Amino acid sequence: MVKELHPQYAFFQGKIISISDAKVDIRTNALQYGTAIFEGIRSYWNEKDKCNYVFRMQDHYKRLLKNSNIMMIDIKYSIEQLCDTTIALLEKESYSEDAYIRPFAYNSGTKIGPKMIGVEQDLFIYSIPLGEYLDLNKPVSACVSSWGRLPDNCIPPRAKISGSYVNSALQKSEALLNGYDEAIVLAANGQHVSEGSAMNLFMVKNGSLITPPVYDDILEGITRDTVIVTAKNELGLETVERPIDRTELYTADELFFCGTGAQVSSIGSVDKRKIGTGAIGVITKKIQALYFKVVKNEIKNYRSWCTRVA
Ligand code: PMP
């Protein structure tokens, strides 16, 4: 058997160790009940600079720490310590390709019972090589899922809770089984569009950008924020955050998904209705191109978002 080159290491129980030694007990509370929160961060290989840049790492850890308050998970590390550990881990892996980093703060205790108090907690980090999650060269097909998004007072979507990804798994699997690439999910009120199974959504209409607001059961995505900021600064495009009805999707000029995994990916059809011309839209193409320049540290104004891996 050929040994996989990556990943070789994990940060586990306070130390960087071989990933093959990073194992959890089958009784682990988070494994049993999904009592964990996590992040997904990307690092991008820059061929010219011959190094990787981790994109908006501080913001991802800021979100993790904020969400730890929702879930009462006590993270013992500061943002600086988490960033330093991530860079140390990536330096040891020494990727020469794009990678994905998964920090995971969880109930590591082994007692029976779903609760957030009186259980040991810990945090691990590992990384994997990661190319495209959705095809970027052609528009993806999407369906409106028969599964709704979780409401905030059941399992808050903004908290990025591992157990809540059962909801995403049901949506994505249904979409794939029905021959679509991705699912679009309606908010818990059943009326408005929320997001994709693991990515946010934007609509282009009459030259402006529209995206669901934070109160429509979305994850407050860092890529969503990146698109809002960079589209305004670099392309002069304002984003309106407002509820979107299902049928507005069918009449949009362009639609695209965005997320750390999905990056910026065009949606060519929804429920078999062609969106615009069915090809990657003009504005989507511009936003996609801009996004890849920003994440690869090619635009001076956004250098503070990119952390170099030596
Ligand atoms: N929504 C969901 C449900 C997600 O899992 C993700 C991926 N983290 C996103 C949106 C996009 O968030 P971000 O841009 O912060 O990766």
Model description:
- The chain is of the alpha+beta class.
- Helix content is 26%, strand content 28%.
- It is built from seven helices and 17 strands.
- Strands 8, 9, 10, 11, 12, 13, 14, 15 and 16 form a nine-stranded mixed sheet that branches. Strands 1, 2, 3, 4, 5, 6, 7 and 17 form an eight-stranded antiparallel sheet that branches.
- α2 packs across α3 (79-93) and α5 crosses α7 (282-295).
- The mean pLDDT is 96.
- The structure holds 4'-deoxy-4'-aminopyridoxal-5'-phosphate.
- 4'-deoxy-4'-aminopyridoxal-5'-phosphate is lined by residues 40, 168, 195, 198-200, 219, 221-224, 259-261.
In short:
By secondary structure, the protein is an alpha+beta fold.
Summarize the SSE layout with pairings.
Elements: E1 9-12, E2 15-18, H1 29-33, E3 36-38, E4 41-46, E5 51-55, H2 57-71, H3 79-93, E6 99-107, E7 121-129, E8 140-144, H4 165-177, E9 182-186, E10 193-196, E11 200-205, E12 208-211, H5 222-235, E13 239-241, H6 246-250, E14 254-259, E15 263-270, E16 273-274, H7 282-295, E17 306-309
Parallel strand pairs: 8-9, 8-15, 12-13
Antiparallel strand pairs: 1-2, 1-7, 3-6, 4-5, 4-6, 5-17, 6-7, 9-10, 11-12, 11-14, 14-15, 15-16
Helix pairs in contact: 2-3, 5-7
4'-deoxy-4'-aminopyridoxal-5'-phosphate is lined by residues 40, 168, 195, 198-200, 219, 221-224, 259-261.
